[in-house]
């Protein structure tokens, strides 16, 4: 059983290797054909007069630059589309952050109000008034001045 498994794996690897080799051979054939075409074109341009060679070279350069320009335009469009998408996401996240900050600001304020109301209720429940001050009505301005200073 173990040998059969190894043999099956070996056959599978051999098959994959043969498929890969066939694909590489096809690539080599295509490249050889392209090379032959380029050599033919080169030989033809060598037989032309110098002026025609220059013109032919310029036409090829114009074609190359045009193709490169089209590729760059396509890339620019992709980048602009991506930029719009990212800006839209940024707006969504900024809104979420603002909502969260507003929520954070309201929660402590509500808690503080609850704490104050709890303190008030606690003070009202206390029967012992320690710390309260007894004074005469005519001493009130003097008392306020001393509390401020």
TrEMBL record:
Organism: Eubucco bourcierii
Keywords: Coiled coil
Presence of the UniProt keyword Coiled coil in the record: yes
Listed name of the protein: MYO5B protein
The keyword Coiled coil appears for this protein: yes
Coiled coil ranges: 3-96
